[in-house]
Amino acid sequence: MSRPTPLRGVHETLGATLTDFAGWLMPLRYGSESAEHNAVRQAAGLFDLSHMGEIFVTGPQAAEALDYALVGHISALEPGRARYTMIVNAEGGVLDDLIVYRLAPEEFMVVANASNYPMVAARLTERAEAFDAAVDDRSDRYALIAVQGPRSQEILATLTDADLDGLRYYAGLPATVAGRPALVARTGYTGEDGFELFVGCDDAEPLWAALTAAGEPYGLRPAGLSARDTLRLEAGMPLYGNELSAALTPFDAGLGRVVRFDKPGDFVGRAALEPLKDVPPSRRLVGLVATGRRVPRHGYPVVVAGDGAVVGEVTSGAPSQSLGKPIAMAYVDTGLTGGLAVDIRGSHEPVEVVDLPFYRRKK
Fold first, then answer.
1. What is the model's pLDDT at position 306?
2. Could you give the C-alpha distances from 347 to 41, 252, 302, 325, in angstroms and in order?
3. pLDDT tens sequence across 284-326
4. What pLDDT, on the 0 to 100 scale, is given for residue 185?
5. Could you tell me which residues are beta bridge partners of residue 147?
6. Do residues 336 and 220 share a domain?
7. Is 234 assigned to a binding site?
8. Are residue 344 and residue 247 in the same domain, yes or no?
9. b/e code 19-37 from CB counts within 10 Å (16+ = b)
10. Assuming Cys at both sites, which of 33, 106, 310, 313 could form a disulfide with 226, CB separation 3.0 to 4.6 Å?
11. Which domain holds residue 321?
12. Helix 33-42 / helix 225-234 crossing angle, nearest 10 deg
């Protein structure tokens, strides 16, 4: 049975189409997917992300434990800052991509994907055993609400006196929002400016209501998983299970920059990853733009136009509201830059290979 978030009643009242996602009952859409997508690009969208996991690592050696457990240089983080990183297995395969927040010198919050956070908590616990650090999965205590879009700061500023102007990208601060305590982070998964608000479960509904009321004059709309997926696809952001998996290393995904070999000490996966840092992968992640109207979907083969030789596979695909064309991300053989098509149920539909991302916001 799918697990509800603290905002289930709100979603039902709004008439959302609910669906199972990673074992959670989540809003797929509230009405028009395209309207929700466009609201985030043009004004603001309100998302329930309470299915994500929040794992705390604390203690005198918490930083050193995370340096060992993850590929990033976590001990270099200043309090109040966040970092995108990954946890890998001994072979270098990606187990999950994460955001780590340093809340205090000896306190970190690791945010993991919904489908993976119990595993991440277990792996962190194992890897922290040799350190003076404690791992505590507090996911059940938190709701997570995101406000994303060019008007998100204006909306949030009506509900808090926190210094939003001074809050940098990938940073967070404790604040009071609509009278509720929250960790306000300038992070997101849409390609737009925005904020993610970590709050207690009991505060989720009142905060959602306050944000809805504050955002109405600015064009804010609730947005579901469908819009979140097309937004992150346009922004070229990977999704675990699509662009990332245990069968792929960070270098395979074009994200080798997150692996920090210059940090002190060893880390899990280092021996497997270090020989790969200067070796081009056999396949690379690219963007595809369809020349027709048919949409390349996850798992469809990428082929050479003409002879049909399979040279890759689509990882994510959808119609793009911003481009007005179907788009996709795909792993294709390194060196191929054109003359490709996607096999859509036996029909070879031509595509253009482009660099990621498809969309960049104007700053």
1. 87
2. 33, 28, 11, 18
3. 999 999 999 999 999 999 999 989 999 999 999 999 999 999 9
4. 98
5. 46, 195
6. no
7. no
8. no
9. eebbebbbbbbbeebeebb
10. 33
11. 282-363
12. 50
CA distance 37 to 45: 8
Cite the DSSP H helix spans in 152-203.
152-157
Q: Are residues 38 and 146 in the same domain?
A: yes
pLDDT in tens, 12-61: 999 999 999 999 999 999 999 999 999 999 999 999 999 999 999 999 99
Q: How many CB atoms lie within 10 A of CB 353?
A: 17
> In this predicted structure, what is the pLDDT of residue 65?
98
265 and 304 assigned to the same domain = no
Cα 303 vs. chain centroid, distance in angstroms?
29
The DSSP bridge pattern shows strands 310-319 and 134-137 to be: unpaired
Q: Please report where in the chains the tokens 């306190």 appear, as a residue.
A: 107
Q: What is the Cα gyration radius of the chain?
A: 21
What DSSP letter does each residue of 259-306 carry, written as one string? --TTSSS--TTHHHHGGGTTS--SEEEEEEEESSSPPP-TTPEEEETT
Gap between the Cα atoms of 277 and 357, Å rounded: 23
| Cross-strand bridge partners of residue 360 | none
Dist CA 117 CA 182 (whole Å): 21
Measure the CA–CA gap between 304 and 341, rounded to whole angstroms. 6
Specify the 3-state DSSP secondary structure of 178: coil
Identity at 262, one-letter amino acid code: D
Domain boundary among 229, 252, 279: 279
Residue identified by tokens 């697990």 is 3
Q: Decide: 119 and 303 in contact? Cβ < 8 Å.
A: no
Tokens of 94: 């990606």
Mean predicted confidence (pLDDT) in 109-138: 98
Residue 101, phi then psi, degrees to nearest 5: -105, 130
Q: Do 204 and 113 belong together in one domain? A: yes
Measured distance CA(186)–CA(348) in Å, rounded: 42
Distance in angstroms (rounded) separating the CA atoms of residues 5 and 12: 12
Structural domain ending residue among the three candidates 279, 310, 343: 279
Distance from the first to the final alpha carbon of the chain: 43
Would you say 315 and 243 are in contact if contact means Cβ atoms under 8 Å apart? yes
- From CA 118, how far away is CA 40, in angstroms rounded? 31
